[in-house]
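# step 3/5: fold
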Amino acid sequence: MTKQQFDLARGFLAKQEHMLTGLGLTPTFTDHPGTKGDATEAQWVKVLGEFLPGRYGVGPIFAIDSLGNQSEQIDVAIFDRQYSPLFFGENGVSFVPAESVYAVFEVKPDLTRGHLDYAAKKITSVTSLHRTSTEITHAGGKYPPQDPDAKPIIGGILTTEWGWSGSDSDAAREAIQASGLDLGIAVRHTGFDRQGTVEMSITGEQLIWFAMRLYRRLAKMGTVLAIDLDAYYPPRRSLSN
């Protein structure tokens, strides 16, 4: 019996074209003025939501903690939707416990030093929140609480255009390194993954490269922290007041 072959490279590029279409961008990365456009927050939510497994929620959020603190509004967050409660929602925006957040991204039209710095400040409003952790009961006993510092929240930026001359300039690498962001992409040019040093994507495959790097990071994180619900409820103030 002849084995059927599957062209992985072609499959990944086909997936990239589908994702580009979802972002409202032409699959050929053309620079023709009539085809240019910037991907919006809603388009990024749709594309990443379709790409990632169903255990992940994707959308705009405010992150909150058990001390009553709240982050700035996050354009695109990836959060747990299997084990963690979403406390409140309004007009399509969820208020999500910081323990449940895997990753947060700022959406901008282009990747520049200024936008990197702005994204870093927005992300800090999430990563600086207090995160609880409690033990998890399983068939053989209990897992102890995990150290929140051992599960850092991923921070990144999602853009369409590239703000430097050349797709792999030293100035860009220095700005990315200084920002402290983990992942990012300028869809028409390149993606980056900062793990000690800054690694750039292969030209022409940047979107699928970014998506796979994102999923790899999420997989390494495993499951989010188990929330200590007693720290959240009952609230310090009486509900009758």
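# step 4/5: annotate
The first strand starts at residue 56 and ends at 64.
# step 5/5: archive (pending)
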